[in-house]
Design goal:
The complex is a heterotrimer of chains A (327), B (294) and C (328).
Chain A: E1 6-17, E2 20-32, E3 37-41, H1 48-55, E4 64-67, E5 70-73, E6 76-77, H2 83-89, E7 94-97, H3 101-104, H4 111-123, H5 127-140, H6 146-149, H7 159-171, E8 177-181, H8 189-206, E9 209-214, H9 217-220, E10 226-231, E11 234-240, H10 241-246, H11 251-259, E12 308-309, E13 315-316
Parallel strand pairs in A: 3-9, 3-10, 7-8, 8-9
Antiparallel strand pairs in A: 1-2, 1-4, 1-5, 5-6, 10-11, 11-13, 12-13
Chain B: H1 12-41, H2 43-46, H3 84-120, H4 122-137, H5 140-151, H6 155-182, H7 185-193, H8 197-233, H9 245-252, H10 261-288
Chain C: E1 7-16, E2 19-20, E3 27-28, E4 31-41, E5 46-50, H1 57-64, E6 72-77, E7 80-81, H2 87-93, E8 97-100, H3 114-125, H4 130-143, H5 160-172, E9 178-182, H6 190-207, E10 211-215, H7 218-222, E11 227-232, E12 235-241, H8 242-247, H9 252-260, E13 312-313, E14 319-320
The chains are: A alpha/beta (327), B mainly alpha (294), C alpha/beta (328).
């Protein structure tokens, strides 16, 4: 058995803002096996995107403090690695797909130019070779008339097309790990369904590991092997997908699941989580979810529940989990 | 990469240092402006001599630190033996009041034009934008000399003419800002509620474009002071017995060879004040433009 | 019920980007964002308008409030023709129909305290004394779940959910007959969406409101709306009660929307994938001939690219515009 594809231990990320420090990620540990697909789900401010962006230090380092005891991709530690070496990992080892393809693409370069840049840099392909491979990729991600599209600029494409181009760019160097950060949030549902199926089939075909970051628990149901739930910068539950959806153990996971709209059962009255997400600037002692939790105990207010491995294969940070979890 | 950070609040000395690091430019600008304003306000108490007191015995005395200078006239005297320091201090009155007057007048004219053009768009915008372009393409100095020559000088005329030079700055900025604010949902929400147009302009648009107007005002203040100096230099300034920096520059013109201080002192005063206005403008712009923050 | 409907629109068309040539007086470059739509909203109901971006649902909502110009058609509000209403008369009528916007970060004036924002409609439309206005604002804030001390604070101090409560309170404070809510949930986190939906429900029963609820989230809307209208490229393609549409979606586009909505159930069927759409949304500036959906429809027939289908009644309040449906 080979080592983990992604290994993050005790990651903390703090931003300096005008209103004081923002604790975006707190003491987060996560491992991802080769070929595994995990979903990271959380609401805005939960730290889900920041976690993934800090892996290759994509955050503005002037105002960010990142600390970790281990941060490794494919067995290679990234701690203390110079920026140039990190650059070399982008593409052949880790690739990103971002939420907004319009800002992630260079508006002044053609699709083909942006697509072949990584291939020529990392794989040392010639111009003609790279172009042929780029056409292949565009065809693979379902872009009609790729011979035409390859010479167009990003603004000439629709939102769905641009996201396909982003996916093609991310796949150009055959990454071992693909990180997709809310890649379908800006898209319509019918387009989203297509993109999800596309990424799924490519993942299955290449066997690469994948992290899909989203706020939509429903989207991950058929996509992820494992789902990691984040709240206020911490992982609060991490479980195999089937386990998580059938018997959520953390009250927040259960609440999130209960308030997610269900197309298969839309008429049943849904229950919502009371209260509001915490301000990441103000850190209360104890469990961050305690003020909104109906199952909170006295100790939840004072002690942060540790993330503990459970017998059923999940990790859970809760002193008073839902009982069904252990049946 | 270190051990994980603990939860800690920002320490106070750090916050203080950050405040100064971030506001240095603004603080320098404000300090200079404050000095100029104090000089103008308290001139009778600060100035060592009356500004127009002629002392032919002490003509063209150099500044104190130059050979032949004396502590009586710190910055030297001019061709009529008037104390240059006192004249620079009194000159601040003219420069700053013309600047302030022109800024207020220019802001009112320019902002109104920009507000109307930006909010109503269509032919209103077309006409007003044409007006702005005409003003921009007209050689201003010629216009100023023509106006002042035909209508006479004096404080009010100079303020009006300098305001004419600067209102375009406001109009252009305000027009663009209004256009973007008008597209905001809260303006549409106000319309949907049925708020009358004038009230929308006053309560919804104006407060939200105030910071760019203030930024433009700082830059325009500098431009106005410079323009006033230029007009005085050309002999079409405020005039009268009240000294102004531009007038002093003009006086010193013929003595550049043997009394450089006659030109240098008012020149430095003008340059510093203009610089201060621009520094404040820069700083305010950084502070208020969200794209430059964070 | 034979009561007068709150909204009755006939042949409603909204055009954008129309430029009239100065020389010839001819129109050019018109995009029909809403094209020949018939719609009735009954008193006390919640009608959801569902569709993807660019389908014209927001424009339709704004047209019903007379916030965008109506190019053709007729619009009646409570039985009165308001198609031609202009100026002060239109402004005075506005207290009867209000709007909640999508982005609560953009829809509140950042320089106005919450109290001022909520008092504004009362100041514009009533002659209430300052004390009465104060009382009504505080009552409304309580009804919207806002703490009294929020009144003296500015929008930037609040989270998205709280701001949306303020925006809803502003729309409801005049007890309007008709409220258009334009995607009021989509800027909010999942855990807050239901809270806001519950607030909409409470206010509806408290003030007997009528809603036009614009959304892209079909799953969310089924349990909330009485009736649902599905829009595609400026046209309503299907309309009916929520249960009629869920039980028997008639238009292929409605079926595709239902199929595409993700479900939080890992075991849920793959058979629905058969109805996934292909291709891209055509440009509204140049809509396809015949049925506007035929370029993406998995069930398209030759007739679909030739003849535009008309709305066909399917029994009850259910109707769809598709050549495949037969009157029921």
């Amino acid at each position: 058995m080979s080592g983990p594809m992604l290994d993050v231990q005790n990651l903390s990320v703090t931003f300096q803002s005008d209103g004081g420090p923002v604790y975006a990620v707190r003491d987060l540990s996560l491992r991802l096996a080769p070929g595994e697909v995990i979903g990271i789900v959380g609401e805005s401010g939960s730290g889900k995107s920041v976690t993934m962006m800090s892996v290759l230090r994509l955050l503005d380092t002037r105002r960010t403090e990142i600390s970790a005891t281990e941060l490794a991709v494919d067995g290679q530690s990234l701690l203390g690695l110079p920026a140039r070496a990190l650059q070399d990992l982008r593409g052949p080892v880790v690739s990103y797909i971002f939420q907004d393809p319009l800002t992630a693409l260079n508006p002044l370069l053609t699709v083909g130019r942006q697509l072949t840049e990584g291939m020529r840099r990392h794989a040392g392909l010639g111009r003609a070779e790279a172009r042929a491979k780029a056409l292949d990729l565009l065809r693979r991600v379902g872009i009609p008339a790729p011979e035409l599209r390859i010479d167009q600029l990003p603004h000439q494409l629709s939102g769905g097309m641009r996201q396909r181009v982003m996916i093609a760019i991310a796949l150009a160097c055959d990454p071992k790990l693909l990180i997709a950060d809310e890649p379908t949030t800006a898209l319509d549902v019918t387009v989203q369904a297509e993109i999800v199926r596309l990424v799924q089939s490519i993942q299955a075909e290449r066997g690469m590991a994948m992290v899909w970051v989203t706020h939509d628990l429903a989207l991950l149901a058929r996509l992820a092997d494992r789902v990691v739930v984040m709240y206020a910068g911490r992982i609060i539950e991490d479980a195999p997908a089937r386990t998580l959806y059938s018997s959520p153990a953390h009250p927040y996971t259960a609440g999130l699941l209960a308030s997610t709209s269900r197309i298969d059962d839309p008429f049943t009255e849904q229950t919502s989580i009371p209260g509001m997400p915490p301000d990441p600037r103000r850190i209360a002692p104890g469990c961050s979810f305690a003020p909104r939790c109906t199952r909170a105990l006295a100790q939840c207010q004072t002690v942060v529940p540790p993330l503990v491995q459970q017998p059923d294969g999940r990790r859970l940070a809760c002193f008073n989990p839902l009982p069904e979890a252990h049946t | 990469m270190t051990v994980p950070v603990a939860d800690r609040p920002a320490s106070r000395p750090f916050a203080v240092r950050r405040f100064f690091a971030r506001h240095t430019i603004g603080l320098i600008g404000l300090t200079i402006l404050l000095c100029a304003v104090s000089a103008a306000l308290f001139a009778p108490w600060i100035a060592p001599h009356p500004p127009s007191a002629v002392n032919l015995m002490a003509r063209l005395a150099p500044p104190a630190w130059v050979e032949g200078g004396s502590m009586t006239h710190l910055l030297g005297t001019d061709n009529l033996g008037r104390d240059i320091l006192s004249r620079v201090i009194y000159g601040a009155q003219v420069s700053l009041s013309v600047g302030a007057g022109a800024v207020v007048l220019g802001a009112i004219i320019g902002s109104s034009v920009g507000l109307l053009a930006g909010y109503f768009g269509g032919w209103v915008d077309a006409v007003l934008s044409f007006l702005i372009n005409v003003q921009l393409s007209f050689p201003f100095t010629l216009l100023a000399i023509f106006l002042l020559a035909s209508f006479g000088g004096g404080f009010v005329s100079v303020v009006v003419v300098v305001a004419l030079a600067t209102w375009v700055n406001y109009a252009r900025v305000v027009r663009g800002q209004v256009m973007s604010v008008t597209n905001q949902d809260y303006v549409e929400a106000a319309r949907t509620v049925g708020v009358p147009t004038l009230r929308i302009l006053r309560h919804y648009i104006l407060p939200n474009i105030l910071s760019p107007i203030i930024v433009v005002a700082s830059f325009s203040m500098a431009q106005a002071i410079l323009t006033e100096a230029a007009l005085s230099f050309l002999g079409v300034g405020v005039g009268g017995t009240q000294p102004s920096w531009g007038m002093m520059l003009n006086d010193g013109r013929n003595y550049l060879q043997n009394a450089w201080w006659m030109t240098a002192m008012p020149g430095i005063a003008t340059a510093l004040t203009v610089l201060a206005g621009n520094l404040c403008g820069d700083w305010l712009q950084d502070r208020t433009d969200p794209r430059l923050r964070k | 019920m034979t009561a007068v409907p709150v909204i009755h629109a006939k042949g409603l068309t909204v055009e954008f980007g129309v430029r009239r040539s100065v020389l010839t007086g001819r129109k050019a470059g018109a995009v029909q964002a809403v094209s020949n739509v018939d719609l009735t909203v009954d008193r006390g109901e919640t009608l959801a308008v569902v569709g993807e971006s660019g389908c014209g649902k927001s424009t339709l909502g704004r047209a019903l409030l007379r916030s965008v110009p109506i190019a053709q058609g007729r619009l009646e509000f409570m039985g009165k023709d308001i198609t031609e209403l202009e100026g002060d008369a239109l402004r005075a009528a506005r207290h009867q129909f209000q709007m909640v916007f999508q982005d609560p970060y953009a829809s509140l004036n950042p320089k106005m305290k919450i109290f001022e924002t909520l008092a504004e409609p009362l100041r514009v439309h009533t002659t209430d004394s300052a004390a009465t206005i104060r009382e009504r604002v505080m009552d409304m804030m309580a009804a919207a779940g806002l703490a009294p001390d929020f009144a003296s604070r500015y929008p930037h101090e609040f989270s998205g959910g709280q701001r949306q409560r303020v925006a809803i309170a502003r729309a409801v404070i005049l007890r309007p007959d008709f409220v258009v809510a334009d995607e009021p949930l989509s800027a909010l986190d999942v855990s807050l969406q239901l809270q806001i939906l519950t607030l909409f429900r409470q206010l509806k029963s408290q003030f007997s409101l009528t809603y036009l609820f614009i959304s892209h989230d079909l799953a969310r809307v089924f349990g909330f709306a009485d009736r649902i209208a599905v829009m595609y490229l400026g046209k309503i393609v299907e309309i009916g009660t929520a249960r009629e549409i869920y039980a028997a979606p008639a238009h292929p586009y409605t079926r595709a929307l239902i199929a595409a909505a993700p479900s939080p159930d890992p075991a849920r069927g793959t058979e629905r994938d058969a109805l996934t759409l292909r291709g891209e949304l055509p440009s509204p500036a140049n809509p396809p001939k015949g049925c506007r959906f035929h370029t993406r429809c998995p069930l398209a027939m030759p007739v679909c690219s030739e003849v535009e289908p008309q709305m066909v009644g399917l029994g009850g309040r259910h109707a769809a515009a598709c050549h495949l449906v037969t009157p029921g």
